[in-house]
């Protein structure tokens, strides 16, 4: 009887673990995410991130209220362990620079930061639109 109970408990544990792993792998970030960040010397900037998942890979564009990004293509998009990272190039009026984004996904919210090659940084908070 004790062996049967232990075996049953082990089976339940393995089933629960495999369901949790399957759920994590099925997260789809596709859709429109809207939020804001602070840009040095310019103030609050409203951001829009649009993600689409095709054949297991994400593509995306980002735009902003300050007009620095106009559906700019996201590059090197990676989603792993609830963390989303990508980058894009931006022209600041003088030169082109890369901006690197790192976000943690929790339900319908993403929080994290951006960082440029010259070391500028700022926090980001996005919420998925329904």
Structure in a nutshell:
The protein has one helix and nine strands. It has one helix spanning 2-25; strands at residues 31-39, 43-54, 57-64, 72-73, 75-80, 83-91, 96-106, 109-116, 121-128.
Write up this protein.
- The chain is an alpha+beta fold.
- The chain has one domain (29-128): Quinohemoprotein amine dehydrogenase alpha subunit, domain 2 (Lipocalin), CATH 2.40.128.120.
- Helices cover 18% and strands 56% of the residues.
- The chain has a 9-stranded antiparallel β-sheet, with no helix packed on it.
- The radius of gyration is 20 Å and the shape is globular.
- It starts with a helix and ends with a strand.
- The model is unreliable at 17-24 (pLDDT under 50).
- Number of helices, where a helix is a run of at least 4 consecutive DSSP H or I residues: 1
Low-confidence stretches: 17-24
Side by side, the strands of the main sheet go 4-3-2-1-9-8-7-6-5
Q: Which radius of gyration do the C-alpha atoms yield? A: 20 Å
What's the CATH H-level homologous superfamily?
Answer: Quinohemoprotein amine dehydrogenase alpha subunit, domain 2
Query: What distance lies between the first and last C-alpha atoms, to the nearest angstrom?
Result: 51 Å
What CATH calls the topology is Lipocalin
What is the count of distinct domains?
1
Number of strands: 9
Largest sheet: 9 strands, antiparallel
């Amino acid at each position: 009887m004790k062996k049967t109970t232990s075996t049953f408990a082990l089976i339940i544990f393995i089933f629960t673990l495999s369901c949790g792993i399957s759920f994590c792998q099925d997260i789809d970030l596709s859709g429109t995410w809207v939020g804001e960040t602070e840009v040095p010397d310019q103030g609050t900037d409203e951001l829009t991130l649009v993600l689409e998942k095709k054949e297991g890979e994400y593509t995306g564009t980002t735009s902003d209220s300050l007009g620095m990004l106009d559906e700019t293509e996201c590059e090197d998009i990676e989603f792993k362990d609830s963390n989303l990272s990508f980058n894009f190039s931006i022209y600041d009026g003088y030169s082109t620079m890369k901006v690197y984004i790192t976000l943690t996904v929790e339900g319908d919210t993403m929080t994290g930061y951006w960082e440029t090659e010259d070391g500028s940084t700022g926090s980001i908070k996005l919420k998925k639109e329904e």
